[in-house]
Amino acid sequence: MLGRRELLGVATGAGILAAGATPARAWSLFSGDKPPAVALKPLTAPRNAKYDGGRPLTDEREVTTYNNYYEFGMSKSVYDAAAALKTDPWSIELAGMVKTPRTVGFDDLMKQMKLEERVYRHRCVEAWAMTVPWVGFPLADLVKLAEPLGSATFVKFTTLADPKTMPGLRQSWYPWPYTEGLTMQEAMNELTFLSVGMYGKTIPPQDGAPIRLTVPWKYGFKSVKSIVKVEFTDEQPKTFWQQLQDSEYGFWANVNPAVPHPRWSQAEERLLGSGESVPTKIWNGYGEFVASMYADKTKERLFA
Ligand code: MTE
After folding, report:
1. Containing domain of residue 140, as a range?
2. Among candidates 122, 146, 138, which has minimal Cα distance to 232?
3. pLDDT value at residue 268
4. pLDDT at 279 over 70
5. Binding site membership of 221 for ligand 1 (Cβ less than 6 Å)
6. Beta bridge partners of 109
């Protein structure tokens, strides 16, 4: 992913090199040092066999040491910096077109949600992929709790922007806070998940503690980390990446091997860990769950 500065050609070029000139296993940046000890709590839930990922799980160490979390910097090795993330206390604002706007505490929310484990494939627009056992609950359950008005057609997500702990916010050309959006129909889709755990533990900071979105048929930038606000609206939200470069990162961002990004062919993806390249599937292979939502959207730029 690149910001406006890189897109305008005024940065050092490090990001551009990282995207194109990657040798076979160079994206596995873990060098043998241990990631910092952040106290993760055990968090298990019954596995929902309907969502089995269809691939071997990616090694946990790869998933937790190769990240995109720009608030903590542009490197993939943000786990050290992200250890500064403060997740207790945490609350989420339920705002906009809802019956009663309010703020719900994370611990309180946990008591109300029925957790399950699902294995999902994740596909980044940078053409790397991973397969992760997430613990969480359907976004639809939070939507029901929020009681949106019938006229709400979109959901906007806002994530934490704390200048005290997030050095990336000093990069003022980015339109902080990091925000994303889904249609209400996408939000209610059975695949759309709010993750609060992975690999049987709470989510580590670098992967989006304490709560992140998981939308496996879309490019990874839609899966926002460390959510602080869920807002219901009747206007399509303008997302972080759209504000930066709409022509490259659109609202829909559904995975499609036939629609290349200007810097990354989307035909194949590299599996984190093994480094194997495999063909990418349309909708990241989740078409049976999601394709019908787009059947009538013939004029939309659905895949970039
Ligand atoms: N959420 C926030 N708040 N900030 C980010 O920089 N990066 C996105 C997404 N969510 C990002 C974010 C991108 S580009 C990807 S690919 C995934 O998080 C990466 O998730 P992972 O680091 O857990 O693999």
Report:
1. 4-10+23-294
2. 146
3. 98
4. yes
5. yes
6. none
C-alpha dihedral (15, 267, 154, 227), degrees to nearest 10: -40
| Ligand 1 atom at shortest distance from the alpha carbon of 208 | 23
Residue 257 to residue 279: CA distance in whole angstroms: 8
Residue 212 CA, ligand 1 centroid: distance in Å? 9
Segment 62-68 mean pLDDT = 96
What are phi and psi for residue 182, nearest 5 degrees?
Answer: -135, 160
Q: Give distance in angstroms: CA of 225 to centre of ligand 1.
A: 6
List pLDDT tens digits, range 8-32: 443 333 332 233 333 333 334 444 5
Ligand 1 and 70: CB distance under 6 A: yes
Q: Is the peptide bond before 163 cis (omega within 30 degrees of 0)?
A: no
**What gap in Å lies between CA 119 and CA 36, rounded to an integer?**
25
**Does residue 299 belong to any structural domain of this protein?**
no
Confidence of residue 2 (pLDDT cuts 50, 70, 90): low
Maximum alpha-carbon separation in the chain: 53
Question: How many angstroms separate the alpha carbon of residue 100 from the centre of ligand 1?
Answer: 30
Q: Is residue 18 situated within a structural domain?
A: no
Rounded mean pLDDT, 179-199: 98
CATH of the domain at 148: 3.90.420.10
- Does any domain span residue 145? yes
Average pLDDT over residues 141-151: 98
Look at residue 17 and tell me if it is in a domain.
no
- Tally the domains of the chain: 1
Closest residue to atom 19 of ligand 1, CA basis: 68
Tokens 């290349």, located at residue: 260
pLDDT in tens, 232-272: 999 999 999 999 999 999 999 999 999 999 999 999 999 99
CA dihedral 129, 130, 131, 137 (to 10 degrees): -90
